[in-house]
Amino acid sequence: MGIGAPMVVAFDEMSGTDTACRPGYEVLKRWLDGTTPELLGHRRAEAELLFRRMGITFAVYGEAEAEERLIPFDIIPRIITGSEWTHLARGLEQRVKALNAFLSDVYSRGEIMKAGIVPEDLVYRNPYYRPEMAGLRLPHDIYVMIGGIDIVRVDPDTFYVLEDNARTPSGVSYMLENREVMMRLFPDLFAEHRIAPVDNYPDALLATLKSVAPKTAPGDPTVALLTPGPFNSAYYEHSFLADKLGVELVEGRDLMVRDNVVYMRTTEGPKRVDVIYRRLDDDFLDPLSFRPDSMLGCPGLMNAYRAGTVSLANAVGTGVADDKAVYSYMPEIVKFYLGEEPILKNVPTYRCREADSLRYVLEHLEELVVKEVAGSGGYGMLIGPASDKKTRDLFAEKLKADPDNFIAQPTLALSTSPTFVDAGIAPRHVDLRPFVLTGADRVRIVPGGLTRVALKEGSLIVNSSQGGGTKDTWVLDA
CA–CA distance from 192 to each of 186, 471, 474 (Å)? Predict the structure, then answer.
């Protein structure tokens, strides 16, 4: 998610902190300088038409027109140099490796808690901790097969991890479709750059999923993608990915469990399923184990999972690792399991559950961004510099009543990227969500990821549910 309004001048990824052009942007800047606003407006209209024809939508719950909404797309790409990406990729691989080690530990021996590094109550009282997973050894000991790590930049050399998405990270379909649209609209720009491809992501994802199949699965495991159904806000992505992967898109009612083995119903009769890429939250997976009123999952799925006859990606219970309070311990988590210094920094974080931090946060609310530990989508936040006294006072009462539910961070001036808006080309704040695929054989990271852009002037909230848009992300080959 994005964070509050900047307190210092933001670093611009094309021009830096002055008017010079940064490495990697030379060709794009020259092209923009020679392109009229009319042509850019025409290309933007073409892009919107293409997205409508593709059927790309994003629903916002509670809004009547949600099914018709397109995520705004900015036609000016965001550029990352090859050396910058090499650094990011190393840090991303390290981060997800530590997340997997942490999850394996908290559901088994709990060494990091015994060592006094992460408080026990932060794990065991976490709403996403699943006691059903305790003592269960997963095939290949991998919990987060698909990780979406949100990255922000504040200067030429500093990238921060804003949050870890270890449950069901979304957005990769927009990364792929953004690239396809840009290649159609700007073949001349592509011809002048050596841009790392992203279209191999479906192959990388399928290889990752098959690699984590149970050891009893056949040589070519059967993969299915489990969706909550067409009323889900990300249903477009579910159907898109199933098509790209060449696997069946199933709902809970399409699955059944016999003798602790999962099958899907087909026109040719039941077919065994070895790996389920689930885009369904833990609570709804199995009404026999979690919410008994769930009509979205498959009864008996957890029994098959415990029996080791099916793999779920991501694993059940991974939400413990993307809790924002646990996030604050990630530097220590990396050091504990890997014996290494973190390559990518955390944003400095105040844990309101600690008395000294709570006192500081209450005294400096006008300077900080305060978030719910389990919040997402940019909701449930206080952006101190952009708030009035009445709002801060109300939030202070929330903090005092339930301090364990909040963390706070300083306001960062996120980097900006040139963006085509109604007034012309202007800087807008961006973040980046790369997707890290961890299989039994290797880690795969497609160069780039989903760049999200805060289209409103001065805003740093990039979430599509709150008016943000997306950009194509170009990683330049060396």
Answer: 10, 19, 12
